[in-house]
Amino acid sequence: MAQFLTFTKTVMKNLFSKPATTAYPAVPREYPERTRGHVEINIEECIMCGMCMRSCPPGAIEVKRAENTWTINRFDCVQCGYCVEKCPKKCLSIVPGYQEPGDAKFVDSVVKPVVEKPAEEAPKPAAEVKPAE
Ligand code: SF4
Ligand code: SF4
Q1: pLDDT tens digit string along 10-25?
Q2: Whose CA is nearest to atom 8 of ligand 2?
């Protein structure tokens, strides 16, 4: 009889309490503050110096100055944050949230857009000096 009462109490409690699980992915996950998610780059600010590449312990970052590309292998990154610390332009950050799951290993590669410099204006001709009469 005591077991039956305990069982009934547990059933009633579970019947009227919120489920312990969440409806992910229908309801997006909320990440706690300071979660180490993934590295993002603001490529516009990057100067292709390669400090992040040289400071990355597992070698997850590749910077190709000649091709203007910054690449990260997400599977190699351990979210240590050294690249964020070392970047002189502060254009790297670790943002909460993980990458979308996929069926293949992938590498994120970002190409820095080439900004065309405005053509320099042709020097104005010197003002004509009239000969003194
Ligand atoms: S967070 Fe760490 S492991 Fe990931 S890319 Fe930056 S330096 Fe490399
Ligand atoms: S350290 Fe910063 S500025 Fe230098 S290549 Fe990496 S992301 Fe770009």
Answers
A1: 999 989 998 888 888 8
A2: 46
